[in-house]
Structure formats: C-alpha cells, structure tokens
Design brief:
Blueprint (H helix, E strand, L loop, with lengths): L15 H4 L24 H13 L10 H8 L5 E3 L5 E7 L2 E6 L6 E5 L6 H4 L1 H4 L3 E12 L12 E7 L15 E5 L5 E3 L17 E9 L16 E8 L2 E7 L21 E7 L2 E6 L14
InterPro entries: B30.2/SPRY_sf, SPRY_Ssh4-like, Ubq-SigPath_Reg
Protein name: D-lactate dehydrogenase
Keywords: Membrane, Transmembrane, Transmembrane helix
Length: 299
C-alpha cells in the first residue's frame, strides 16, 4: 500500500513544458518536393539521357578569367549560346538585351550566356571578402502552341543558372549544377528531375520576372585552419515586375528525395540560363539599366 501525503484520487502533476522543447525554436520543416509537374513533364527517355550525360561528363573545374573576358561580363556584353534543340530566332538587340522566339511545338531546349555570370576564381567571397550577386530578368511577351497537345498550356520557360557542362535538352533546375523557376506552374527546381517545389504562381504574359543568387561568406569567417571544403552561404531571390516576392537559402533543410546542391555553392562557374518549351516570345535582360528591379548596391 502506497504511503505519503498525496490527496486521494489526485494524479501526480508532470510539468511537461519543461521536458518538451519549444518547437518555435526549431528550423522550419523541409519544403516537400512534388513527384511530377501539374502542367507538363519531359519524357523519361530525355531524363535518362540527361542522367547518363551527367555521369559521363563531370562539371568543369573553374577557371580564372582574363581581364578582357571579365570586362565583357562586367559590361553585360553577353551573347546567347543556343542548344541544337532550339528552333526559332534569337538576336542581341542591344548590349545586355536579347529578344527571341521559339517555333510552335518546340521541345525542351536551352539558352545560356556565352560567359559565366559568376566566376568562382574571381568572384568567390572567400577571395574578395565581400558578397557577390548575379541576377537577370526575362520578359514573357507571348505564348503559342506547345510540344504535346498544341495548347498554350504546354508552352513556357524557366529562368535559372547552370554550371557547365549541362545537357542541352534540359531546363535549368532539372539536373546537377542548376536551379530554376518555371513559368507554367511557378515551381522551383534545384538539381531536381522530379516535380520541383511549390514556390510562386504561374507567370503572366507581359510580366517580367527575375532570378538572383547572392554568395556570402559563412556567418563564421573561416580561419586559415578551417575546413578546406567550406563553401559560401548562398541566398536565392525571385522578383516579379521589379518586386522581390520570394526566395530561399540554398542550404534549407532538404528531404531525402532532394537532388542536392552540387555545383551551386560558389565553387563552380555559373551561367545565366533560360529553358524553353513550346512556342514562346521573350526578352532576356542582363543590363541593370533596363531591369524593373532596382538593386540596393552596385554589382
């Protein structure tokens, strides 16, 4: 028989607040990835070819640009490199400004800058001791017939960045060393061959969207004896008609299906990239003078 002064029938009190941690201090849960897009999806064959390509061709090691090469990028004097799958027209209408269109029914194809926007051996915050931002905008002028159903719902583009080499029939965000945001469903992709993650709404005709990456030193600046594998802290941001409307940190908590962040941590050169599918009329803007977004600091 138990003894003591406890009042009969009264259960013992447990101060659970002291034993259960305050979940408000926990980091946010990972953003759940989607198995497939709710709009259009590339073929399994294209995805398999891309995986084989990435296994066969590792990312190029970064190179230090010549002064002349770096000057071209600083002046936004960039030319489009179009993939063999690109069927349509593309022209440089002014320094730092492209205008183009793809044919009705065009399959997945890729445009990239001819030079990196980010040179790891020139722009890394570990070398400069300051942050580096890369950014550009795309204006959606028109949408026409898509590659599958000939509906405009099958057409669109993605804005992003890629490390080279990159499979020319894949949009930025789908394979290693890349990220992108898509016009048809607003999802964002980071090295993700599945359905991406919910991020924003579908882009509108006439709208201008922008994507940027800012590379920072880690919060604790590494000393000479720090781990040599330490990489820059990277924030990604997205704009619509000149307003910042979203973003994420590259090192956000990831789920097990995530494709990782290889090639995007500031340790490889990165090119501006636009993925296109179906008939699309567009402009690509690299010169800050024609951006709708106004940066606080000069790049």
């Amino acid at each position: 028989m138990a003894t003591g002064n406890r009042t009969p029938g009264l259960l013992p009190y447990h101060n659970w607040q002291e034993t259960v941690p305050d979940t408000a201090t926990f980091p946010p849960p990972p953003v759940a990835g989607l198995f497939c897009s709710s709009t259009g999806n590339a073929s399994c064959g294209d995805a398999e070819r891309a995986h084989e390509f990435c296994e066969e061709f590792p990312l190029y090691l970064p190179v230090k640009p010549s002064d002349a090469m770096y000057s071209f990028v600083r002046r936004y004097d960039l030319s489009p490199s179009q993939s063999p799958e690109f069927c349509g027209d593309i022209s440089v209408v002014d320094q730092g400004r492209w205008r183009g269109s793809t044919n009705d029914g065009n399959g997945d194809c890729l445009l990239t800058t001819n030079l990196p926007l980010y040179f790891s051996m020139k722009d890394s915050p570990f070398l400069t001791k300051t942050s580096k931002t890369i950014y550009f905008e795309v204006r959606l002028i028109g949408i026409r017939a898509g590659p599958v159903t000939q509906s405009t719902d099958d057409s669109g583009f993605s804005i992003g960045f890629v490390a080279q080499p990159y499979p020319s029939w894949r949009s930025p965000g789908w394979e290693r060393g890349s990220l992108g945001v898509f016009s048809d469903d607003g999802c964002r992709f980071v090295n993700d061959s599945w359905g991406g993650k919910n991020f924003t709404s579908k882009f509108r005709i006439g709208e201008t969207v922008g994507l940027g990456m800012t590379f920072h030193l880690p919060i604790k600046v590494p000393s000479a004896s720090a781990n040599e594998d330490e990489k820059a802290n990277v924030d990604v941001f997205f704009t619509r008609d000149g307003r910042k409307v979203g973003g994420w940190n590259l090192y956000e908590e990831l789920d097990v299906e995530s494709g990782g962040i290889e090639g995007l941590r500031g340790d490889f050169d990165l090119y501006g990239a636009v993925g296109l599918f179906g008939g699309v009329d567009f402009e690509v803007l690299f010169d800050p003078a024609v951006w709708l977004w106004t940066p606080r600091d000069c790049f």
